Amino acid sequence: MMEYLLKYTDSEDTLRAYGEFGEKWVRIMEAGGSDVVAHTKKLLEDWHQSVLEDRINKIMNGELDDDQ
Q1: Cα-Cα-Cα-Cα dihedral of 26, 31, 32, 36, to 10°?
Q2: Which residue would you say has higher pLDDT here, 63 or 36?
Q3: This prediction's pTM
Q4: CA distances (Å), origin 64, targets 37, 39, 41
Q5: What span, in angstroms and rounded, lies between the C-alpha atoms of 30 and 24?
Q6: Burial per residue of 4-42, b for 16 or more beta-carbon CB atoms within 10 angstroms, e otherwise
Q7: pLDDT tens digits for 21-55?
């Protein structure tokens, strides 16, 4: 899976963001409890919102390449 992510990683900031996401997920899993699935869903929702907002900002600023 990491090889797949690295293939599509376009910057060191993106790689750092993947690392932070992974660390947050590990903390959720280590905490355990009955809310693991709910916390994981929330983490994924926050991640997707962040990615979407970043993409919208790039589009608005004309920073996206044609192939993205």
Answers
A1: -60
A2: 36
A3: 0.68
A4: 34, 32, 28
A5: 10
A6: eeeeeeeeeeeeebeeeeeeeeeebeeeeeeeeeebeee
A7: 999 999 999 999 899 999 999 999 998 998 888 88
